[in-house]
Sequence to fold (738 residues):
Amino acid sequence: MFSLIRLGLHDLVRRWQTALPMSLVVAVSLMAYLTLQGYQAGLATGYGQVAQPWLIVQQSNMLGEFSDSRVAATAVNDLFALGVSQAIPQIHAVAGSSVQDAVVLRGVDLGQYQQIEPFTLVAGRALQEGDPPRLALVGYRLAQAKGVAPGETVSLRGRDFTVVGLFRVGSYADNEAWIALTDAQTLLGWENEVSLFVIPDEGILHEGVEIAGGLVVARKGAAAEILARQWQPLFNLLSVCALALGVAAALTLTNLLWRLAWMRRRNLAILRAVGFGQPALTVYLLAQAGCITAVGLLLAFSGVAGLTSALSINNTGQYLPWILNGDVLSNILALSLLITFFGAAVPAWQLSRLNLALLLREE
Amino acid sequence: MFTLIRYASQDLLYQPGRTLLTVTGLAVIVFAYLILVGLSGAMADYGRHADVSQKLIIIQANVADLRHGFVDDDALQAALDLPEEIVQHISPLGVRTMRVNEYVLSLFSADVADWEVVYELNLVAGHWPTAAREAAVSEGAARAAGWQLGDTLRIFGADFKVTAVIRAANVIAYSSVWLDRSETEQLLGSRRDRQIVFIQLAPGSDAEAVRRLLEADERLDGRYHVYFQDNLGQRYADTLRDIRRVTRVVNGIILLTIVFSAYNGTSLTLAERGRETAILRALGFAPAFLYYFLLLRAIMLSAIAYGLGLGVAAIFLTIYQANAPLLLLGLPLSLQLTVNDILWGAALILALAAAGAWFSSRRLVWRNVADILRE
Fold:
């Protein structure tokens, strides 16, 4: 078994000038698939709905957790009158003069915001009650994109805010800059309005319930899930292309291995004559296919690392992260194995059909 | 030349199974390449409007998403004060992103009287809203959400009856709901519902001069920009810019596989037929003849693969687009291959295949005949 693997790899190394370009063909198809899978995982992780113990009250039909919803701050009284124990105001808006420099802004109640969105402090400190105006707590993805650190300033609607810390939530919130609610109201000219109220899910109000004044109750995180779904048609189309490239890689690998094996047909026939059976032939070809695919996989990872660090996808301040998680890893390994097996199976089958005596007679 | 073509054709037909495998592999790559060309082309073309010369828009400056902007009374008045002889219509437009069930749509509000003349909406079914609490929905929205005439939409806590299905000339209104301004003013307050002011100029007016005149108006005071209408589509297209860039880079990388595949195919052919090549040379065939033979063989393989890949891609795109365009973040993208795309693609792929064949054959063809025959 090991001797056949060694023989297969030895033959491949002898033909490295052919094997390396083949690895590059495999690398391109795996890279396309890996890029796509990583972005899909980033979308699912960042925008997927997690079990939230919170509801939000926002203007009906709006995606209040991103923008557009405007609610009078006095609506809090109506919520308390309904029996709600807590109503935490927030503002969600987009600042910036163009799509490229857009920053997603969140105005938070400094006394209560940490209850709603648990975060890990990556650097600096959190915003706290009694802070002076014009301070910002910045998500780590936004900080990376803008190249800012605690002590530096970030420009929001033309005004400089000093970054006091960097946070990480593990969701789309990592693209945001959090500032005091009053700062956000001043910055946006919203006077006494907010985007929404976050309320605990304590059984008093339920998802879909309408409240006077054109307000509606929604599940916190639902808007993100709906927005994430808007990307699905694109991913579906790109998946067709990525899988087509996988098929192309498998076909090209089949062609290559078959032709390499054909050139060594007499030697392989001798092996069969001295007792190595069909499985041995398959091992020989699988070793070659596995080696080519493994090199391709390594090249694909390097390529994706370069591609995703050089090119970021920014949709009006929302950066789409590329994530390598267990699912992505298992999917790319599955595709690699499929390419390997398909690439080796057809030549192995073809070789097994050839007449041994005729092969041995060949010069 | 004809001899070369004949030899190359006979060579490809000599082992049809192997040729088929090579062509199929290349054709699948061509298919993926052309689909991505269609996609990035659709994103590049997004929002281009045929007739833009006689429509201007006023929008707030320094606002990344115009839905968050607002055109104040002073700026509106500056437009209203333009001489009557150069202006046909001035129409404030409210723009919102709206969620109805699982669908994300655009909500536009403008005077119903302006819908046809300013916004180029065409009535497909039903009648324009004439009474309170009536709405129009675009064909795209109706198709996505399954809405029909007479259905009730719950918008901002009020029930609206769908009385019209419309088709919009501007793609940004592909998935949209339209309300009369009076409705949104009542529900939201007028202060929030004027993100754009459309100015339709009279035929023959110098649109650029009017644009400069308005921008210089002190009531706009640098807080607003005046653009031609096509800027609107460009702003939406900007949101797709990064996706387009990634698509183009990936497509460039895909093209490299053509080079590698052609390189492999040619070098294997030479390795398999080293002895035959040497015999041909010993019989008097010049190395250049064999060299051109291999280049032509690679080009012929790629040409067949390109034709096959193009055919499959065209069929795929036709079927894919048959019911509805690709919707990306609510924006409709019309995937199509232009003649330019097809010709450029063909030239690129044939050139890259020739390059791959050239890389692999440049040394081997000129090797010493005696050395090859001794192997």
